[in-house]
Design brief:
The complex is a heterodimer of chains A (331) and B (468). Chain A is of the alpha/beta class and 331 residues long. Chain A has helices at 48-55, 77-82, 99-109, 114-127, 143-155, 173-188, 201-207, 225-230, 251-258, 289-303, 317-325; strands spanning 3-15, 21-33, 37-41, 63-68, 71-72, 84-87, 161-165, 193-198, 210-215, 218-223, 235-241, 262-268, 281-287, 309-313. In chain A, the strands form 3 sheets. Chain A has a 6-stranded mixed sheet with strand order 6-7-8-3-9-10, sandwiched between helices. Chain A has a 4-stranded antiparallel sheet with strand order 2-1-4-5. The relative contact order of chain A is 0.13. By secondary structure, chain B is mainly alpha-helical. Chain B has 20 helices and 4 strands. Chain B has helices at residues 2-16, 19-40, 68-77, 103-108, 121-124, 133-141, 155-159, 192-208, 211-224, 226-233, 237-241, 243-257, 259-266, 269-302, 305-310, 316-350, 361-385, 389-407, 422-434, 441-465, and strands spanning 52-58, 125-130, 147-151, 183-186. In chain B, 63% of the residues lie in helices and 5% in strands. Chain B is elongated, with a radius of gyration of 26 Å. Chain B has a 4-stranded mixed sheet with strand order 2-1-3-4, with helices on both faces.
């Protein structure tokens, strides 16, 4: 396998208010192999978009470089961009043009023309299943259909690397499923490499061959799903909620002392004045959580506090992120 | 190139798809000009331009026996009244003139109207001779005169070729003759009628004083004929005193064609207003179109289309050039359609086909191109200057209105400041072409220069605005 994309110490700084320098991306290193579906996962403001903007030539890196198919985005941006297909989160289409006109407009911007352009447009319209609506204006399409045209525009010039930025945001489950299937088709049928950004761990888990987790402008974890979950061990998380009851401060220590296999207990205490602490709860990290649950509930029963709800969470990317940053991915 | 044209095509397509914008661009200016034309000009009737009050100040000190300033002053002052409050110069100039330039005029004029003869200079002007240029200008400012014609002290000296009979070159056209400058002072803030009369006066003066061309033609004619040379060789001082008459005769011949005067006089007042106000409205609305078209860059940015374009293998400059090219073509199309539409409206009102923009199509195209490029430069500058689409809207509207108020789109101009408006230079050019004059080089140069400067500054600013 050879590298489709290589980012070397990509860094981007901005001037903030008051002349303060903001480091949006702090020297990212990435390598994406040909034919790979690679997800970039992270909360809003993690630096995903800035990283991708540099890779796609939208903004210039403050330092560092990225190679697409061996072409530097700094030294040979036109050659690098020719290999890249962009599918933005926004519906970046002219609403007053038809689906076909949008395809041919952007096709021309990739240097396509004549018969070749028409043939590619036909192929793409077939791929996104909009051949029968090709002469309708985009503004008359449903949200899902617009998404499909948006994807089609990014594929028209047969790119080797396709960048998809949260393409399932705001669409119904049926169209979401269709788009995820499209991602697999791009890899499996057309041999394309896909760089997929999302903040939805379920999508990243389902789609990706490898995942990079970004936070505060840095890649904090990178690997397959299995590699990443191993970082938090085989522990499950049990989240036990007590509603607005006052939870004694001894609860975490009692659980950790009396239940075998518990490695960590985080507590949150109800505070009527603090919206972020709208209930009392404990998060218990324990191996084989379902088996440990009865013993944990016995301990709680002795404390004379009523359990309102119990959740058992097996290791996932959310847990990895929480483990690495101490924050939830959606915070 | 394909990429630039693709972006330009999208600019044009956006307008084509927007019916309300098309109506605003093409129908509103014609409607406004038509309404103003019907309100201020009696439809189909002829605007009687007679007795235009002008002040003539002849400061020419002559050159040898030549007194070209006096000749011109006499032409304008023929059958004129004299301002009793000023030092009269008319009575001791007109009578001394031996050439009787005006007398022959009525006999030889090409009278184009079947019903009534066109006015002669005697009826056209109510000229007053003054000897103080400042008083004349003040008179224009306070509305006493529509125009002041000020003949400078070195007028004859500038026009007189520095040669004697003995050193006449083999080719008379080799004689170097400088251009003489006459001042035609008018009030930019005057109402439409005064603007029309100013145009008439300028047209007549242009005919009378065709500077070097006329003198060169006279000399060429004289030297080309050996009998004339013989006459000149034996000429005494009195004969040379008549050189002014030779100049005047030739001048008289030129003026006898009277094409500019005839064209202006033959047009109805409605047509005259359509030319002035219509051209101004066309340029005024073209500024709006340009701004509106370039504003789409903000929409493209908001919809992430601009970012998507910048991620294609297309240089940023191509996208900017494409957008500006599309907007410029749109303006060119708009101005062209408006000029044609105003001709159609004028023809309908007049009851016959009247092409109101003169008969020099090449100059008309050149001027329209220059206007379009100038408007494009202004649009790029305005859009580049603004930091948000809201600012761009405000700047664009203020600029267009400012240019319109200065340049005469609302029926008046603001004196001295008018020349800051590209509308003024456009309208002036169209008015000249309409009157049969092709002396629009200055208009073309100024429009192109202003457009180029604004374009360069605006492009630099615009490039910064599409940073994402």
């Amino acid at each position: 396998m050879s590298a489709m994309l290589t980012a070397n110490q990509l860094k981007k700084t901005f001037k903030g208010s008051g002349g303060k320098t903001i480091e949006a991306v702090k020297g990212v290193d990435l390598t994406i192999q040909k034919g790979e579906i690679f997800s970039l996962l992270g909360p809003n403001g993690a630096g995903k978009t800035t990283t991708i903007s540099m890779i796609s030539g939208l903004i210039e890196p403050t330092s560092g470089d990225a190679l697409i198919g061996g072409h530097s985005i700094v030294k040979h941006p036109m050659k690098a961009k020719q290999l890249l297909g962009v599918i933005p989160q926004e519906i970046a289409l002219y609403p007053d043009l038809t689906a076909r006109q949008n395809l041919t407009f952007f096709g021309r911007m990739y240097g396509l023309s004549g018969k070749d352009l028409n043939q590619r447009a036909d192929e793409v319209l077939d791929f996104i299943d909009l051949t029968d609506r090709q002469h309708d204006k985009v503004k008359d399409f449903s949200g899902g259909m617009k998404r499909r045209v948006n994807i089609g525009v990014g594929l028209l010039h047969r790119p080797q690397l396709v960048y998809m930025d949260e393409p399932t945001v705001g669409i119904d489950p049926q169209n979401r499923r269709r788009i995820l299937d499209t991602v697999f088709r791009l890899r499996d049928e057309y041999g394309m490499t896909v760089l997929y950004t999302t903040h939805m761990m379920e999508e990243a888990q389902e789609l990706s061959d490898r995942i990079a987790i970004m936070d505060h402008g840095e890649v904090i974890a990178l690997g397959t799903h299995g590699d990443l979950t191993q970082q938090v061990g085989e522990e499950d998380r049990l989240i036990i909620s007590f509603g607005t009851q006052d939870m004694p401060s001894t609860v975490p220590d009692l659980i950790q002392e009396r239940v075998v296999g518990v490695t960590r207990v985080d507590a949150q205490y109800y505070d009527a004045k603090d919206a972020t602490q709208n209930e009392s709860q404990v998060t218990i990290y324990v191996q084989r959580g379902r088996k440990a649950l009865p013993r944990i509930l016995n301990v709680i029963e002795d404390i004379d506090i009523e359990v309102e709800s119990v959740q058992v969470r097996e290791p996932d990317l959310e847990a990895v992120f929480l483990h690495l940053t101490g924050r939830a991915l959606r915070d | 190139m394909q990429k630039i044209l693709t972006v330009a095509w999208k600019q044009l397509q956006g307008v084509y798809a927007d019916t309300s914008l098309l109506l605003f661009m093409l129908v509103t200016p014609v409607m406004l000009a038509t309404i103003i034309g019907l309100a201020f000009g009696s439809s189909g009737g002829t605007l009687t331009i007679e007795g235009i009050p002008i002040a003539v100040v002849n400061l020419d000190e002559g050159s040898g026996d030549s007194a070209f300033g006096e000749t011109i002053a006499n032409v304008l002052l023929s059958d004129s009244t004299t301002d009793t409050n000023s030092n009269d110069t008319a009575d001791n100039t007109a009578d001394d003139n031996q050439c009787s330039l005006i007398t022959d005029n009525a006999e030889t004029d090409n009278i184009t109207s079947e019903d009534e003869p066109l006015p002669t200079l005697e009826t056209l002007f109510n000229a007053i001779a003054l000897d103080d240029a400042d008083i004349a200008r003040a008179g224009v400012d306070d509305g006493t005169y529509d125009v002041a014609v000020i003949i400078p002290a070195d007028f004859s000296a500038t026009l007189s070729p520095d040669v004697t009979i003995a050193d006449v070159p083999d080719n008379p056209s080799d004689i170097e003759i400088e251009s003489a400058i006459l001042e035609i002072y008018s009030n930019g803030g005057a109402p439409i009628g005064a603007i029309v009369t100013r145009s008439v006066t300028e047209a007549v003066i242009n005919d009378i004083v065709n500077g070097t061309t006329t003198v060169r033609a006279t000399l060429t004619a004289l030297f080309a004929d050996s009998s004339n040379l013989a006459t000149l060789a034996t000429a005494d001082e009195d004969d040379f005193a008549n050189f002014g008459c030779a100049f005047g005769s030739d001048l008289h011949t030129v003026r006898l064609n009277r094409l500019p005067l005839d064209d202006v006089q033959a047009e109805s007042s409605f047509v005259q207003i359509m030319v002035g106000i219509g051209a101004a409205q066309a340029v005024f609305f073209a500024i709006f179109t340009m701004n509106n078209s370039l504003l789409t860059v903000y929409n493209d940015k908001r919809q992430w289309i601009l970012q998507r374009l910048l991620m294609t293998p297309t240089p940023r400059n191509f996208i900017i050039i494409g957008k500006i090219l599309g907007a410029s073509l749109l303006v060119l199309f708009q101005v062209g359609v408006l000029l044609l539409a105003m001709t159609v409206v004028s023809s309908i009102v007049m009851g016959e086909w009247v092409f109101i923009w003169g008969d020099n199509i090449l100059y008309l195209l050149l001027l329209t191109l220059a206007v379009s490029l100038s408007v494009a430069g202004l649009g790029v500058f305005v859009i580049g200057l603004a930091q948000t689409p809201e600012q761009a809207n405000i700047f664009g509207t203020l600029t267009a209105l400012g240019m319109a108020m200065l340049g005469g789109a609302f029926g008046f101009q603001i004196e001295t400041l008018e020349q800051l408006s590209i509308i003024y230079w456009g309208v002036d050019g169209y008015s000249q072409l309409s009157g049969g004059s092709t002396d629009i080089l200055m208009n073309l140069l100024i429009l192109l220069a202003v457009g180029a400067v604004l374009f360069l500054i605006g492009s630099w600013l615009f490039n910064r605005r599409i940073e994402v």
